[in-house]
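As a warm-up, study this chain.
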Amino acid sequence: MRVFVAGGTGALGSQLIPLLVEAGHSVGALSRSAEKAAVAEAMGAEPIIAAALDRTALMQAVRASRPDVIVHQLTALAGAGNFRKLDEEFELTNRFRTTVTDTLLAAARDVGAHRFIAQSFCGWPFAREGGRIKTEDDPLDKNPPRSFRKTLAAIQYLEDTATKTRDTEALVLRYGLFYGPRTGIAVDGSSVAMIRKRRLPIVGGGGGVWSFIHIRDAASATVAAVTMGSPGIYNIVDDEPAPVATWLPALAEAVGAPPPRRVPAWVGRIALGAGGLAVMTENRGGSNAKAKRELGWRPRYATWRHGFAAGLG
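Now compare it with the structure written out below.
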């Protein structure tokens, strides 16, 4: 099949395009510059240069590609991680999740693409109540921390808009927190650098539950979604959601860092803001049962324990 990938040269796209090509798909990759186009071409894709936020140019790019499937992986997450300023740091990503989603869905209708796949997130958007592990049917947070509100609104917009479309089969993939090459949790990643400096503490009891996914496993799930699964939302996470008090010391050990500091909740609130305190103490993880069942997918790293030890390089 012909697959159009928007966001093909980022951390996930650089894993996704080679897997799509290996699976026998013809890939067109949206590129914002000649430099990025060369990267996409080297991975086996046909580069198509256009600015994602230019609606006319993006529509023309999709028409030129004539895809059967559109994969929307556009984000701008490099350097993000300040919980106090999350909405500020995600401003461009939020535009990708709203304005660009609208454009790509319109383009899908225009060219008759039969499937649309979009990136969402599994973790802090869930309501911080009830069980610690959530499915796709569980509600999102109705009262998120103030600095998270615009970002959650953009996530909800993407999910609602995609899943309500009747013109194409739309699948929304809620990825867990990425780790592996070119992510913040990599040998040379920004989060690992903080851990080595003991700047990422366990706050309170460290009871916030996080779900992880290796970047290549996220890509393999996306390839599966090109041909498998009914329209809807899927949690793309590993088999072991875990509290901060469990995974953070293990990650520190895996990268040869000293054990993380422990600070009381009130100190964490001062240092990380209300949003940071929430994700460290109240976060919910996700179940991958639906993705396994309907996409026929299994993560190579079934647990972050193995991935942290062997998959960060």
